[in-house]
């Protein structure tokens, strides 16, 4: 399921009301009966509703389902995407939709723009898209929503990411700026950087290594463990030290004073230090970075790396700053966290590292390097569009005509 925003500008406010009615009805109906859609939409007169229903079905935002007892409709992923986009457009978070720059296992990453052309990232969570194992329907969280579970769970994933990104950002962690969350989507600032995985050489690996270890420790000092801290979830931004800016240095001279700043972009497995498996997650994060630096940069640190006991000590000295607690207070409750964790386990969502094989140590380094450079070439062409502002400007212009104007056509 890919986002195709083209049709959104042809939708009327009536269409959106009917779409929202199907969404509302699907909270307690597997298949939403047509009379209920009509009632929930609040629109008088059946012909308008019927026309909207057939419009929406034609572009696959809703799907007709013939039930044993009655006919009705079900909201499709596209329908949920349009509802979220419409909300972002109304709140002026998004003006136009650009290129998709990434398809994650459980999400789509899309460049969007504001009215002034400045760019942002929209992440659409699509939980369970790839690894669908049958979810046990006797699970508490699915009792009343077996068919709508993807919708609810994807929303929980977006809520979780937004809540953590906000808390982390507020406490000075290097993460994108969270801008808005609606349904299963979040909008955040665009980071002009490459994932660590695509960085072939680092001038001072020891320095970057210790930055990353410090980040793991710093997270724990605030009560959190990332749980999936690896080369896919860390972007590396190049920043010129302030003292060398605007000094008329040549590019080569500037290169010598460039700092690599890691930015953490994805935290689906983030848990509290009080989680029953906290120590295992903490050690896994540390190991993952150690192993990656050894394999990719041939760097092995003298020290063993931080331990969970050390992290606990730091936490004890930092009372009152528990981000795990702050996140709960912000509306992403412990119950939601548990539901999401259980669901992710059930549908077989794995941490990035495991799923993409970063955990697999192989003695035959040459072979691995070869393999890696092949996929890097592939990935960098995809990523290039994000980095190259020229391309991006072009793609946004092309989007002007594609602006989301569904709700303004009323
Ligand atoms: N704020 C951002 N700015 C720039 N690029 C981003 C941003 N967020 C995500 N990306 C790009 O999109 C890719 C996937 O993002 P992310 O890891 O959040 O999604 P995911 O669903 O977990 O994907 P995956 O499972 O493939 O890691 C990243 O590797 C990065 O290249």
TrEMBL record:
Residues 343-358, 381-390 have a biased composition (Basic and acidic residues). Pfam families: RIO1, Rio2_N. It comes from the Eukaryota. It catalyses: L-threonyl-[protein] + ATP = O-phospho-L-threonyl-[protein] + ADP + H(+); L-seryl-[protein] + ATP = O-phospho-L-seryl-[protein] + ADP + H(+). It is an enzyme of class 2 (transferase). Belongs to the protein kinase superfamily. RIO-type Ser/Thr kinase family. This is Serine/threonine-protein kinase RIO2. It comes from Penicillium bovifimosum. The lineage of its organism: Eukaryota, Fungi, Dikarya, Ascomycota, Pezizomycotina.
């Amino acid at each position: 399921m890919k986002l195709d925003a083209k049709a959104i500008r042809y939708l009327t406010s009536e269409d959106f009301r009917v779409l929202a009615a199907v969404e509302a009805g699907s909270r307690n109906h597997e298949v939403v009966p047509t009379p209920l859609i009509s009632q929930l939409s609040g629109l008088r007169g059946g012909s308008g509703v019927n026309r909207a229903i057939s419009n929406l079905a034609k572009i696959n935002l809703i799907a007709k389902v013939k039930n044993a007892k009655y006919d009705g409709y079900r909201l499709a992923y596209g329908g949920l995407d349009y509802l979220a986009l419409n909300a972002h457009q109304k709140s002026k978070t998004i003006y136009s939709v650009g290129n998709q720059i990434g398809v994650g296992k459980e999400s789509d990453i899309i460049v969007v723009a504001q009215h002034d052309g400045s760019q942002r990232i929209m992440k659409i969570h699509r939980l369970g898209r790839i690894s669908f194992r049958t979810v046990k329907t006797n699970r508490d969280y699915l009792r009343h929503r077996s068919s709508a579970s993807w919708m609810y769970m994807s929303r929980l994933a977006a809520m979780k990411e937004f809540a953590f990104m906000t808390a982390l950002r507020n406490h000075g962690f290097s993460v994108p700026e969270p801008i808005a969350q609606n349904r299963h989507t979040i909008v955040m600032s665009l980071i002009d950087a490459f994932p660590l995985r695509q960085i072939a050489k680092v001038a001072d690996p020891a320095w970057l290594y210790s930055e990353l270890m410090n980040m793991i420790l710093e997270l724990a000092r605030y009560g959190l463990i990332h749980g999936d801290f690896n080369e896919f979830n860390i972007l590396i931004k190049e920043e010129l030290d302030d003292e060398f800016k605007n000094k008329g240095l040549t590019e080569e001279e500037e290169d010598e004073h460039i700092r690599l700043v890691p930015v953490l972009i994805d935290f689906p497995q983030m848990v509290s230090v009080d989680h029953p498996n906290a120590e295992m997650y903490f050690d896994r994060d540390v190991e993952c970075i150690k192993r990656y630096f050894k394999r990719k940069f041939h760097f092995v640190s003298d020290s063993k790396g931080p331990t969970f006991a050390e992290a606990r000590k730091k936490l004890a000295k930092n009372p009152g700053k528990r981000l795990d607690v702050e996140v709960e207070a912000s509306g992403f409750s412990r119950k939601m966290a548990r539901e999401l964790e259980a669901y992710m386990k059930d549908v077989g969502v794995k941490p990035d590292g495991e799923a993409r094989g970063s955990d697999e140590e192989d003695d035959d380094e040459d072979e691995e390097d070869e393999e890696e450079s092949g996929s890097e070439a592939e990935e960098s062409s995809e990523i290039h569009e994000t980095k190259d502002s020229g391309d991006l400007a072009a793609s946004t212009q092309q989007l002007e005509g594609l602006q989301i104007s569904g709700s303004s056509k009323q």
